[in-house]
Write a structure and sequence with these properties.
single chain; about 180 residues; alpha+beta; N Utilization Substance Protein A, Chain:P, domain 4; 4-stranded mixed beta sheet; 4-stranded antiparallel beta sheet; 6 helices; 8 strands
């Protein structure tokens, strides 16, 4: 299995469930984990970014002037740094930081669909993980069991690095290799 979409399709066929229902359940689980982690009243959305299984979490805020509730609203100037087309009354999606990804991956281990999710992650460098890149950023998130049996959940995002993308990836793999020992 190459990605979570294939796992969902297989699970759906086995259980006779519409794949969209399973996908929505995974998104809901991600949102529950994010709300527990951030302990806030912010509105959240979860997306599978593409058919390769990219998972992203966002806080969603309304552009306002003045801002009355910072948990639910954002100033126009802040919003325009995220989305240059933002205007008063529009919604802006703010991607959540890396630790949210780790919390979601940790939460996933407690769910009944975890084995399918885990097996859907590509095997890179001997680790079940998903890679990603956009602009000048590179990332790896996933699971690793060390030589002594300790299980790790990790997420590494590198941005504004010096050198080539290949060199950044090589250095990231060097960091991940430490988890193997």
């Amino acid at each position: 299995m190459d990605n979570i979409y294939q796992s969902i399709e297989i699970l759906s066929k086995e259980k006779g469930i519409d794949p969209q229902i399973v996908l929505d359940a995974v998104k809901d689980a991600m949102l529950i984990a994010a709300r527990k982690h951030f302990r806030t009243v912010e509105n959240y959305e979860a997306d599978f970014g593409d058919k390769n299984g990219g998972i992203k979490l966002y806080a969603v805020k309304t552009v306002a002037d003045p801002v009355v509730d910072p948990a639910l609203e954002i100033t126009l100037s802040e919003a325009m740094r995220i989305d240059p087309t933002a205007e008063i009354g529009s919604l802006v999606r703010i991607q959540k930081p890396t630790d949210a990804l780790v919390k979601v991956l940790q939460y996933a281990r407690s769910r009944p669909w975890y084995p399918s999710f885990y097996n859907s992650l590509p095997l890179f460098n001997g680790m079940h993980m998903k890679s990603g890149s956009i602009g000048g950023a590179r990332s790896f998130s996933g699971y690793q069991t060390s030589a002594d049996g300790k299980e790790y959940v990790f997420s590494i995002i590198v941005n504004n690095y010096d050198g080539s993308s290949a060199e950044a990836v090589k250095r990231m793999y060097n960091v991940l290799d430490i988890l193997k020992n």
